[in-house]
Amino acid sequence: MQIQVVKSKIHRVSVTGADLNYIGSITIDEALMEASNIIEGEKVSIVNINNGERLETYAIKGNRNSGDITLNGPAARKVQKGDIIIIISYGILDFEEAKTFKPAIIFPNEKDNSLT
């Protein structure tokens, strides 16, 4: 049997932008993607702490160490600049493997989305 488990999580980052006219996705600072083991094009869930909205989209790389967290396309209607969000990705593992799997969870600084 296989189950879906949390693979990666960027816990509590500030939205730096919302671009309704972009094709879609979430732009994430490349350093945050690397630290959380999220790759470009990967499906992610977004949870907005400020308004309770939940959505799914895919990740694209932002400039490294920029702190960039921008919701693009229709997802831009679900956030405002300054909102605090959680970004989560999931993986499918065999049941026994899932028991010992450790996800990559990071806790950036909410003020500037840095890793320090």
Automatic annotation (TrEMBL):
GO terms for biological process: alanine biosynthetic process; pantothenate biosynthetic process. Keywords: Autocatalytic cleavage, Cytoplasm, Decarboxylase, Lyase, Pantothenate biosynthesis, Pyruvate, Schiff base, Zymogen. The keyword Lyase applies. GO terms for molecular function: aspartate 1-decarboxylase activity. Pfam families: Asp_decarbox. It comes from the Bacteria. One of its GO terms (cellular component) is cytosol. Is synthesized initially as an inactive proenzyme, which is activated by self-cleavage at a specific serine bond to produce a beta-subunit with a hydroxyl group at its C-terminus and an alpha-subunit with a pyruvoyl group at its N-terminus. Its cofactor is pyruvate. It is an enzyme of class 4 (lyase). The active site is at residues 25, 58. This is Aspartate 1-decarboxylase. It comes from Flavobacterium akiainvivens. The lineage of its organism: Bacteria, Pseudomonadati, Bacteroidota, Flavobacteriia, Flavobacteriales. The gene is panD.
